[in-house]
Write a structure and sequence with these properties.
heterodimer, A: 486 residues, alpha/beta, Rossmann fold, 2 domains, 6-stranded parallel sheet, 4-stranded mixed sheet, 10 strands, B: 273 residues, 4-stranded parallel sheet, 13 helices, 11% strand, globular, disordered N terminus
């Protein structure tokens, strides 16, 4: 059994074949033409939108909660360097060992080192998107240490050799029939059943045994409280609590932006997080971790570590506008409400974080070279910004990133890969466009020609006529018609 | 599968409206000027019939939105700067498009932010810029008897109108004031039609998926036409529907669309033709 359960890990031992973000268009094409994907994501997103809406019946209350949450996040970020130092001091005082990692490789090396010191063979994991961001499972497998997901969705995704397609619901793209097939194939002694309760029980039995034998437990962090040195963990399945209390060693990993100053800052963020994410008034579990087992404690790990990861976050932090990206509390509401995400699902993005938040955060983690097309894949409808619990102006940031990608490369860029989307031709077209429209005389001449010679309008108009009848200017302009009347 | 909740579009906090002015500036937008001039004529006729003098600044070109949203802020700035002189009097500025109105109201200031004097002028212009339907309801309290036959229509509110200008409810209000018109709310009414300016050119697959869904959900209501106050969305939806008609060999348009101004003028007995 255990050999088999590790197969998942063995599959994940290969670098996950996640095609580069430059192939975005091809993946989007495949996704929108997959009727099963279209139906399942539409249904799931409708469900989640309805659940969230039911939590916020009063628009005024919602707006004040969002404003409060935005203020807390902005306040925390404004003091981020100080708060991180304070967090480190208080965690250290509580007996937690704090590590700093600038890159995914550094983070993985730190954690591998801890695992090796304890001769760890198996690390059991609670849900952590940062661990996905650094491809933790792959790094551990490559070093001969097993890493097993214990969140049910993550477990399914790991068995399938995939990445999460949603940050809150990692296996939302899988049907119960597909999960039944996976379980029957990968877990010995399991016969095919697509009864959801039975499937959950099967998963639980496998994982329960793993909690007992795992040497290290890994978890993410939702909020790190600087003043008290407390790590807060929001979850529904109880596996997070198992990972952080049963194994002898607990390693928590999080991005440097997750810190808040005071315990009282957590309550409003926690409340708006669960309501925005899954439409729950509160999650099933809320864990507050303040250090390893103390003398009189009956359980708990003997060692607790926190790894604080940068991975591009300080680049976003350095720019006043881009810093707003770091307000995110990872609720996933932006993807639930995104008409693009709804149609292509999470995998098409080719990034750890999909959807609107993925489009604004991935360029900092991966550089614009790989990701410059992501910010263009939005109609700027604004649904994401409207539901964001911390009021991140996502459309505004997408426009900024488009500009960073378009501009000619220059010295001291705000971002790695600045200018990666630069095209001399496209820039020339926009310069010409500006010349015409910034000079009323030129515009009058241009629009006169466009209407007078409308018969010569090209019938093929790029992406527009892929599925639409071509546009043709009117026979006469409004300004001509207005003049005629007078 | 549950139905998505209908998002009202919080828009921005309610703004204060001026008393009925003697005159307004009409900022037609490049799309109306070149592609849908009849919508501009009808909007002007509606305003004039209410006793408002309409000034059409001849030097108007474009609000700069295409460059701004495509990530060419310099080019957008050049165009915006050329438009700041158009409105010397202190009359309100009426725009028959939610997205161009939103551009003027929220983004002109940002685009010229580096020059404090220009920024102040852009801010003053933003304060007196109104989306057409918003102006009809909140400033003119437009009420004319409906003279047309009983009709069921669908209303598409652009994302900018909904979220930047907060004009979802005024569009509905104007239709509700027409006694013989029934508004059919389509499935996923609040969802984007997939236009998004250059998005429709850059990402035709997703854009097509979005507009096809929009066409299908509007048709499913049984409405005999669509009304909208944004020509970008209108052309996106109607040209997609026309393509479906062509592909299916249908001779007549299965989903005609009209600008709200054209629809209102016709229903209340006016005409510009």
């Amino acid at each position: 059994m255990s050999a088999q359960a590790n197969t998942a890990g063995k599959d994940a031992g290969q670098p996950i074949a996640f095609v580069s973000a430059q192939a975005l268009r091809a993946r989007m094409h495949d996704a929108v033409n997959d009727p099963h994907l279209r139906t399942s994501f539409r249904g799931a997103m409708d469900f989640l939108m309805a659940k969230r809406a039911a939590q916020f019946p009063d628009a005024n209350e919602l707006d004040s909660l969002r404003s409060l949450s935005e203020s807390i996040r902005q306040y925390s970020l404004s003091k981020l360097p100080d708060l991180l130092e304070q967090l480190e001091a208080n965690l250290t005082r509580n007996g937690v060992q704090v590590h700093w990692a600038e890159t995914p490789d550094e983070a993985n090396a730190i954690m591998l080192d801890i695992a090796r010191r304890h001769q760890a063979k198996l690390i059991v994991k609670g849900k952590s998107m940062v661990s996905e961001e650094i491809e933790f499972n792959h790094a551990m497998e490559a070093a001969g240490v097993g890493a097993l997901e214990s969140d049910m969705g993550e477990y399914i995704v790991q068995l399938a050799g995939e990445k999460p397609s949603h940050i809150i619901m990692p296996a939302i793209h899988q049907t119960k029939q597909q999960i039944a097939k996976l379980f029957a194939e990968h877990i010995p002694g399991v016969t095919y059943t697509d009864n959801v309760d039975a499937l959950i029980q099967i998963g639980r039995r496998v994982l329960r045994e793993k909690f007992e034998i795992a040497d290290v437990g890994l978890s993410g962090v939702n909020f790190a409280v600087a003043e008290t040195g407390t790590l807060c963990l929001v979850e529904n399945e109880g596996n997070g609590r198992m990972c952080t209390t049963v194994p002898k060693v607990h390693i928590a990993i999080t991005g440097i932006e997750k810190v808040v100053e005071k315990l009282e800052h957590v309550a409003p963020l926690f409340s708006i997080l669960t309501r925005s994410a899954t439409g729950q008034a509160v999650s099933t579990y809320f864990n507050m971790i303040s250090g390893p087992r103390r003398g009189e404690d009956k359980d708990g790990p003997e060692e607790v570590h926190l790894v604080l990861l940068d991975n591009g976050r300080s680049q976003a932090y350095a720019d006043e506008q881009l810093r707003k990206t770091l307000q995110c509390i990872r609720c996933g509401a932006c993807m639930n409400h995104c008409p693009v995400y709804t149609r292509i699902g999470g995998h098409a993005y080719g990034t750890t974080y999909p959807g609107p938040i993925g489009k604004i955060v991935s360029p900092h983690m991966m550089g614009l070279e790989q990701t410059h097309l992501l910010p263009t894949a939005s109609s700027l409808c604004g649904a994401c910004g409207e539901v964001c619990p911390v009021k991140i102006p996502i459309p505004e940031l997408l426009i900024r990133l488009r500009g960073e990608a378009n501009s000619e490369p220059h010295a001291n860029p705000a971002m790695v890969g600045q200018g990666a989307g630069h095209s001399a031709l496209v820039s020339f077209v926009w310069r010409m466009w500006a010349r015409v429209h910034a000079r009323p005389g030129s515009y009058r001449a241009f629009s006169w020609l466009a209407t007078r010679f409308r018969a010569f309008t090209p019938k093929r108009q790029g992406g527009w006529t892929a599925a639409r009848m071509p546009l043709q200017p009117a026979p006469r302009r409004l300004r001509d018609m207005v003049k005629d009347r007078r | 599968m549950s139905k998505a909740p209908e998002a009202a579009g919080a828009g921005h906090a309610t703004r204060s409206y001026p008393p009925r002015p003697a005159a307004v500036y009409f900022y037609a937008t490049c799309l109306v000027d070149m592609f849908v001039p009849e919508a501009g004529m009808d909007a002007i006729a509606l305003l004039e019939r209410e006793g408002i003098r309409v000034i059409f600044p001849d030097n108007q070109t474009c609000c700069g939105q295409p460059a701004y949203t495509s990530g060419f802020p310099d080019e957008a700035r050049q165009v915006v700067e050329s438009q700041l002189d158009l409105f010397p009097g202190d009359y309100p500025i009426v725009v028959p498009s939610g997205s161009c109105g939103g551009m003027i109201r929220w983004n002109w200031e940002k685009v010229v932010a580096n020059d404090p004097a220009l920024k102040a002028r852009a801010a003053a212009i933003a304060e007196r810029t109104f989306e057409f339907a918003e102006f009809l309801v909140h400033v003119l309290d437009f009420k004319r008897p409906d003279q047309g036959p009983a009709l069921t229509v669908a209303l598409h509110t652009s994302c900018s109108a909904r979220r930047e200008m907060g004009t979802l409810l005024v569009g509905r209000e104007l239709l509700a004031r027409l006694g013989n018109v029934t508004l059919a709310i389509h499935d996923h009414e609040s969802e984007c039609c997939g236009f998004g300016g250059t998005f429709s050119l850059k990402h035709p697959d997703v854009s097509t998926a979005m507009v096809s869904d929009k066409v299908a959900s509007i048709k499913a209501t049984g409405a005999c036409q669509m009304v909208t106050a944004d020509c970008g969305c209108m052309l996106n939806i109607t040209q997609r529907a026309a393509r479906e008609d062509q592909d299916a060999g249908r001779a007549s348009a299965s989903l005609p669309g009209e600008h709200l101004a054209t629809f209102l003028l016709r229903r209340t007995g006016g005409s510009t033709t």
